[in-house]
Task: structure prediction
Amino acid sequence: MSLVWDKMIPLSERMISRLEEFEKIEVDSKYEHEDLNFTWKNYKFIDKRFRQAHIEIVDARESKKIWVMHMTIFPHVSNPAPIFGFDVVAGANKITGAFHDFSRVDDCWIYTYFLAKHLNKSWTNPRVLPEWAEQIFSPGMLAVSNINTEEELDRLSGVAIDNLDYYLYNIAYEGNKGDYTEKQNRYCKFQKQNPHTPAMMINLGINKDVFTQYMDEVLFPELK
Result:
């Protein structure tokens, strides 16, 4: 039994279910994997209120004692709403890293709401961000490690679901105010500087070139 996995896997299912009302886009089968060692699954959606919502699940509990979830929602490039991000890296006994942010694109009420709600809120074991992350994440970003109590696991789950519901509802009303292609591309460029993202997948056996393509096409897609 793992309290951490028993909390995080249902959370991922709830977050996927929130997106199932939108149009699902099939991801290339080369970006999926399933065998006795691990599974790699992707869920991608589009809608008139956002250009892409994506959830990635890597389940290597049997072979590596690790379970990972990555989630982003990119607004349409005419929308100044922030980029929604949520990531969890969970071992059997603790979450080694949890990250959640409304990453700023431009000033708008969705971003202001996130800062007001999370700025200066304390968590046990906050993580220091690397330089690349400081370039794109907000001052209110949740970045913590060593989450292992039921109280904090439930707190993390509650924050993730509440903010996802708020984001999905309000992004539809933010409106079109400009062209934010460059700012969204900047977010993707810095995210792809994270060395841990490809390193984990290559260690699991995914071809490096395939995962590089995946980052460009699915995970952090830059627009021309």
